[in-house]
Amino acid sequence: MRNMRNRYVVAAALLLVALAISANATAFVYRWLVGQVNILQDDPDQARGILCTGFYSSAAQEGINLPSAGTNYNAPTFVGQGIQVTPGAVECRWLHNNRQYALYESIQASFSLTVGNWYIKDFYGFGYYQRNPNDPGQVYVSFRVANALNEAAGIVEARLFVYNAQNNQQVANLDLKVPSGFTQPIALPANGAFRLSLYIESNSQVQNADFRIDFAVSPSNEQHE
To answer: What was the pLDDT predicted at 7?
Structure first.
């Protein structure tokens, strides 16, 4: 009987150890996400919807079937100097009245100014061309100041003004000296456009002060993060 009792004691002790190990064990269950990315070559002649948005100048592309915008893309500012705008890649291209027109992915603008106050009205446009009636009746555009002029001590104030080209109402006012997140989405109707204007106030000489503004385009008015 004594030996039988000892075996029970040992068995009970082993059970307690097993329970202790089980209580402290870590268990895992697996779920997974499988992704595949395909990058296709752009075809500007087939671009539709939000792909058919971008920069343009109606002065540089005479006869374009979008609102008048970008009429001062090459305006002089003082003798021998002025505004220079270089467009980037073509994102959307179409024919109208047997002429070819395009919207560009980006622009690089250079403003040669003197100390003081300057307002550059309508130096370029940003539009949405509705290629097909089944395409969205409007798109939504948000802006952010990605790179600011905050280190340019000689620049007192710098702002980008965005106007609706159809009614000339101001839809955005961006402080170029302060980095910012994206603005609330602004509706851009089919075959509509924005006009871009720049205000610069300076009190001393400044060289090569750079800024960058991002344009985010969506078919919905959901806030961009």
So the answer is: 42
